[in-house]
User: What shape does this take?
Amino acid sequence: MGEERLRVKWQEYNQQRTINYHSVQNKGLEQYPVIRFEPKQTIVMRGDFPEYVYFIISGIVMGARNYADGNEYDYFQLGKSNGSVGLLEILAQQEETIATITCLTKVEAVRVPSSIVYEWLMQDLDLLRLSAGLLARDLYDRSGNDGLLYRYEGVNRLRHFLISYYEERVKDESDLIEVVEIREKIGNKLGMSVRTVGRALKKLRENQEIISEQRRIYIGLQEYQRLKTQLQNI
Assistant: This one.
């Protein structure tokens, strides 16, 4: 009974799950400029002061961060449906942007001064609730994933990544899922060099934990089960 009541309250107070262009359309966005970016163009650099928030109208951007060991880690991708650029920093009251944001495609975004957006958030209860839910889900997800780079090394990091990749995309047991991420991007996500990713993929192929044809990677139900078995046995 208590579980059902909580689910009802979750639904009542947080039907929308992110803050995006649609969330703030009633704030008079037409008075702010629409900025157009080309693929590979940088919107903000890590360390920049968060002077603006960019609400994405179309296109996809990627956040990445470089570390002292020379590796680059991909953080996230954002588009019209799932967010905006600069929101985290102003909610956290931080003066430095946490990640470099680069365009994967052509991007159009409404640019609004951060001071204006922050005032919207503080004075609009619905937006404030959305902000709390957004930050809480991000913290929850990271609490489950942050140990990945410490628990697993080399090929086992890749096994974990491929298991999650399959689970997020499979709809039927007969599905054969293609891993469309290139080796460089996989390495960025896992903190591994391209060479290390290549060696790990070779081992997985030899163990029949993946299907590799013409440099394309596929995972079926049997491969998925082998990946899980190997990871559980470490």
